[in-house]
Amino acid sequence: MIKNGGLLTSDQPNPKWLSVLPALIRKRIEDRHNLQKILGNTGWLFFDKILRMGVGLLVSVWVARYLGPEQFGAFNFALAFVALFGAFASLGLDGIVVRDIVREPEQQYEILSSAFMLKLYGGIVAFLISLETIYVMQPAATQTHWLVGIIAAGMIFQSFDAIDLWFQSQVKSKYTVIAKNSVFVIFALVRVVLILNKAPLIAFAWAALAEIIAGAAGLTMFYIKQHSILALCCPRMNIARRLVKESWPLILSSLTVSIYMRIDQIMLAQMIDNKEVGLYSAALRFSEIWYFIPTVIVSSVMPSLIQARIESVETYHNRLQQLFGWLVRIAYLIAIPMTFVSSILIRFLYGLDYQRAGLILAIHIWTAVFVFLGVGSTPWTINESTMKYSLVQTTSGCIINIGLNFILIPLYGGVGAAIATLIAQIFASFVINALIPKLRVLFMIELRALANPLR
User: Fold this and answer.
1) CA-CA distance, 50 to 43, in Å (whole number)?
2) C-alpha 268: how far from chain center
3) Counting C-beta atoms within 10 Å of the first and last residue's C-beta, which end of the chain has fewer, N or C?
4) Closest among 140, 30, 131, 10 to 82, alpha carbons compared
């Protein structure tokens, strides 16, 4: 049994939600408290993302129709540009911090506060770098400077997301869900008010920053109810050094992921115009909205996979195969129907101004299959300490994406960018694993999942 915030429990009562399940399912999970915690945690995370998917998508569509492809493209260019520097704010710490808290519960507060301070410093650095870079790239674009500056300031306050890592390690994500969703709903209404009052583009950037600040405040309040705020103020230099030493390949990996996930919008703006960025961004809203699913599932099962790796390699590999099977199954269920309804969906929701985004969506939606595989490999990467190979994977994908963008964007615009992203994602998340000996076990797990997801 793991004490002090560990995963396993003994004589705990079954949760109330168990009583509403069908008898067959209830019988299988009664008194399996660790599984109940995982299912409960996953349920909260799914509630969070489904609410955001529903409400957020409707508000986003409304904002897109209100701003039009040109201004919507300018706003999304700023978002994509800031996202390029997000790796410096997150520092690739998330999975490592969760793992270390599970493994070393007696040092959980020192680990958490060390991660918080690292993220805070990283957010400040990311903010300054993004400002300097946009001034160099577009010295006369005053509106773009303001958009990037306001949105980039949010990376400083995202350091409070370190608190969420503690809740993840305890399989208690409901507190994060309640805190952030309350803020999310409020600011969805704020955006509606901005539209009704015909607010300028810059107002939507201020709303995005205010939402991050309010979310950080809500998360901190929930944490303080269970712990003293001083628990965030006891960083240890030796722990911080250890975290950075282990996470630096993930920092570089996250940076390259940010580049090849967002470089399309940057290159579309530079090589064509903001309107093409707006069309591409409209398609991405429906393609990337599903990416929460593997993140939710993996964050919920991560602690149990860490424990399984300690107890039995065979059990660990079996659970990984089950995880990948589920992820691929879900990805196919999303990509196949979306391929056929994409044009109808875009035209119905966004209007005729955005109709070319339908073909972009039909292609880009298939990246979900390989994004799901990439996220699913996180427990393997953390448990097997193969972080350095993550850098090889993402760097290769980044180079392929940029190279193909130079060829395909002038020819096909947003459609070419979607093709480039899909090819790069296939290579980075799947093909390259076959080329690296230490990752071939992972490649075979992925291959079996892709070929026979029902297994």
Assistant:
1) 10
2) 23
3) N
4) 131
Residue 221 is predicted with a pLDDT of 79
State both tokens at 102.
């599970």
Whether 254 contacts 86, CB under 8 Å = yes
**Quick check: helix, strand or coil at residue 356?**
coil
Q: What is the pTM of this model?
A: 0.70
Give the pLDDT confidence of 296-350 residue by residue, as tens digits. Answer: 788 777 777 877 777 777 888 888 888 888 899 999 999 999 999 999 999 888 8
Whole-angstrom distance, CA of residue 164 vs CA of residue 166: 5
- How many angstroms separate the CA atoms of 429 and 435, rounded? 12
Question: Which DSSP letter does residue 139 get?
Answer: T
* Contact (CB, 8 A) for 386 and 441: no
How far lies 130's CA from each of 80, 137, 150, in Å? 11, 11, 11
Query: How far is it, in rounded angstroms, from Cα 217 to Cα 213?
Result: 6
184 burial level (CB within 10 Å; 0-12, 13-18, 19+): buried
